[in-house]
Amino acid sequence: MFFRAARRLPACAIVCGAALFSVSTLADTDVFTALDNPATAKQPFVGNLQAGFNAQTGNTSSSNLNANTTMTWFNNDFANSIWGSAVNSSSSGVRSSEKYQAGARTRYNLSDVNYLFGQANWLTDRYNGYHARDTATVGYGRQLLNGPIHTLNLEAGPGVRHDEFQAGGNETKAIAYASGTYSYQISDTAKFSEGVSVLANDDTTLNSETALSVAINEKFSLKLAYNVTYNTKPPSSAPDKTDTVTSINLVYGL
User: Fold this and answer.
1) Rounded to the nearest 10 degrees, how much is the dihedral formed by the CA atoms of 30, 132, 129, 178?
2) Is 219 left (phi over 0), alpha (psi -120 to 50) or beta?
3) 85-107: string of b/e by CB count within 10 Å (b at 16+)?
4) E strands, the chain, where?
5) What is the pLDDT of residue 13?
6) pLDDT exceeds 80 at position 54
7) Which pLDDT belongs to residue 32?
8) Are 96 and 115 in contact (CB under 8 A)?
9) Distance between CA 227 and CA 207 in Å, rounded?
10) Is the confidence at residue 222, as pLDDT, over 80?
11) pTM higher than 0.85 for the full model?
């Protein structure tokens, strides 16, 4: 099983595996990865590298590493993608953040604007209370805008989520999933994207990513992103409902 295998991966393997990131996917925020339309794909495979690192020494010492990966294959009416991410931070020799994710997703076009999707995601975020969170959803999507300037996807469907808490205990719940992803090609070198997803039950999770990507040349670009995760009932070991991350990363296109 995907989730069991992912849990056995050592942290260093996940970090190394997070060396590739695809900006062709609109957003990679915890549990949703909206795929491009395979009918309009210009090549059978896309994949990029996104990574950021900073370190400070002196009166205070701190470090932060973040990396993301998505690789996507297109074949007629199908698109298939795998992705992962890693965030690791420490301050004065004390770990303050450690979050790893991995996922897979597929899309099948029913027509030019209608499609079916399925996705699965594994997350560990022990500093926010989760030893593991497994999520799987399926459903229907509609391509409202299909570029080249504007793209807009709306998706919805049922799913299931299994949580294992850092403080102990676990629970499995049915969920309702909905998401919207939008991108705007501002110019030949700049692209804005916004993605929002909701996993709803008596413990609802909202994820969003707002991002701006600016090309430096044919292979490299910079990406500025602001991510928000909101839980209506967070784990008791991490009671804050809202977590935010701001990042500036270098992206390398494969």
Assistant:
1) 30
2) alpha
3) bbbbbbeeeeeebbbbbbbbbbb
4) 45-56, 62-75, 78-91, 94-109, 114-125, 130-146, 150-165, 170-185, 190-200, 205-215, 220-231, 242-253
5) 35
6) no
7) 59
8) no
9) 7
10) yes
11) no
Give the burial class of 134: count Cβ atoms within 10 A of its Cβ; 0-12 exposed, 13-18 middle, 19 or more buried: buried
**Which residues 6+ apart lie within 8 Å of 47 measured at CB?**
20, 21, 22, 69, 70, 71, 72, 253, 254
Q: What percent of the chain has pLDDT over 70?
A: 86
Q: Is pLDDT at 213 greater than 90 in this prediction?
A: yes
For residue 33, the Cα-to-chain-centroid distance in whole angstroms is: 6
Tally of CA atoms within 13 A in the half-sphere of 3 that contains its CB: 16
Which candidate, 193, 201, 118, places its Cα nearest to that of 152?
193
- How far CA 6 is from CA of 62, 84, 98, in Å, comes to 28, 10, 15
Residue 136 carries which side chain, given as an amino acid letter?
Answer: A
Write b or e for each residue in 149-163: b if 16 or more Cβ atoms lie within 10 A of its Cβ, otherwise e: eebbbebbbebebeb
Give Cα separations from 228 to 88, 123, 139, 205 (angstroms): 17, 16, 24, 10
Fold for 2-253, please state it: Porin (2.40.160)
Is the pLDDT at 142 greater than 60, yes or no? yes
CA distance 121 to 28: 11
